[in-house]
Automatic annotation (TrEMBL):
This is Peptidase. Residues 4-182 form the Lon N-terminal domain.
Length: 214
């Protein structure tokens, strides 16, 4: 069943459960946020790529308006809810400044395999240690979801958008596992190369070879 949702296209992917802080400055989106605040309603962030507004996006709940500026701009805190597919996009909603559309909620299937998660955890540990950002592992629960780590894998916006369109958790974890398997050897070799470059910049005391006189 479809329903109407105000839309705020952005060149980012917001995943379900993700907290997102935004600075709102355009009049059309200031109007959208003020209406959501007044009516306790949600809005959607569809992904905007080079080809235009994508078919998929994430429904967003406004948590708070943190600050309002004299010119009408505002800082807000939000949270991603579920994923939707746009059935009909309106560049401008009649009587409003912002975009909107008829959307359809996308059901997500939680069918992950424990082995997938444990393999990903080990690969993440290797990558983060190599990059010196192992602190990212501290707040990661063992029962993490794909969406919890998706922004910390080196994905492009297009890759994150492809992940958003996978409705099975097992498929998303498989994509992540394949990605990590491919890039970790590159990361490790790059870090080794950086260390070699650093060493080559130091003064070295090396003994020359001794040649015997014939």
């Amino acid at each position: 069943m479809s329903r109407f949702l105000p839309l705020f296209p952005l060149n980012i992917v917001v995943f379900p459960g993700e907290k997102l802080n935004l600075h709102i400055f355009e009049p059309r989106y200031r109007q959208l946020i003020l209406e959501c605040q007044a009516n306790d309603t949600t809005f959607g962030i569809p992904v905007y790529l080079d080809k235009g507004v994508g078919d998929y996006g994430t429904e967003i709940k406004l948590l708070s308006v943190e600050k309002k500026y004299p010119g009408g701009e505002m800082d807000i805190k939000t949270k991603g809810l579920g994923i939707f597919k746009i059935k009909e996009f309106q560049r401008q909603v009649p009587g409003r400044l912002y975009s909107g559309g008829e959307i359809e909620d996308v059901p997500l299937i939680n069918d992950e395999q424990p082995l997938q998660r444990s393999q990903i955890l080990e690969l993440l540990r290797q990558m983060y240690v190599a990059l010196g950002i192992q602190s990212l592992m501290l707040n990661l629960p063992e029962n993490f979801r794909s969406f919890d780590v998706a922004h910390h894998l080196g994905f492009s916006t297009e890759q994150e958008y492809a992940l958003l369109q996978c409705f099975r958790e097992s498929d998303r974890l498989e994509i992540i596992l394949d990605h990590l398997t491919k890039i970790i050897p590159i990361v490790l070799e790059t870090e080794r190369l950086k260390e070699r470059v650093k060493l080559n910049g130091h003064f070295k005391h090396l003994a020359p070879p001794t040649f015997r006189l014939l």
